[in-house]
Design goal:
Layout lengths: L1 H17 L6 E7 L20 H9 L6 E5 L14 H11 L3 E5 L5 H4 L4 E5 L7 H12 L3 E5 L6 H13 L5 E7 L7 E2 L1 E2 L12 E2 L3 E4 L2 E5 L5 E9 L7 H26 L1
Length: 268
Amino acid sequence: MKSKMFISLAMSLAVALCFGIQPADAIIILAGDSNITEPLIVGNGNGVPVNAGNQTFFTNILQGGSKVAVLSESVREGVAADAPVVDTNVNTFYNNIGKTSNLITTAVTAGILTGVDLFIVPIPDDAFTAAEISAMSDFVGGGGSIFFIGEHMFFPDQNGYINDALIGLGSNLRIVPDLTSPVSLPLGNAQIVSDPLTAGISSFKYVATSEVTGGTDLFKTTGGESFVQYETTSSNVPVPEPSTMLLLGSGLVGLVGLAGYGRRRFKK
């Protein structure tokens, strides 16, 4: 019985190594406009019509996952009486489409992010601590995705908190805080860049935005400035080189053969 178990495990590992099973991939997304969350739900707090393109995008970035965590924010609501509650819009949207989404009102920890597929950070109220950056780094390293949502010139401090977090995560993405591209209110249509994350989207609504740089374009303003980008980050699981995988695979096959030989000798 033990020989059979050994052979089965060895063969499974050999196959995995020889065929090069890859580590999980995470994505870090950055947006320079929080108004993209307004068209997600009816009764969004600002009377903005629902837009299917924005809904599809927020569904796409979940990449088949089912659990979302949304960092609670209060800065945006203090700007105007009719300002949308960004965190609530996003949280409600995911729960409405059958996913599990929770608002995070405490410090970001590894425990809070356990089992989460997508962590959304809209206009953070405060700078992230070193411990929070470490928790987010481990989360991304384990295959989790993070979506940072900033805003144009009214939120320079919050955009700075996001940029500092991106630096701490080793990301190349950045918000350019002093560049805005206003459109006709309440919402305008963005230019849509072809990508798996924009699949099925024919229109995408935004208002005024800061430009974002350092990643792969997803949406651009009517003036051609990129305001939603992403980058893919492999998790911290080492991937053997092809030659190493071949040697390991061959060695394991040899071990299987020896196990079988030993069992035959014992029977004889």
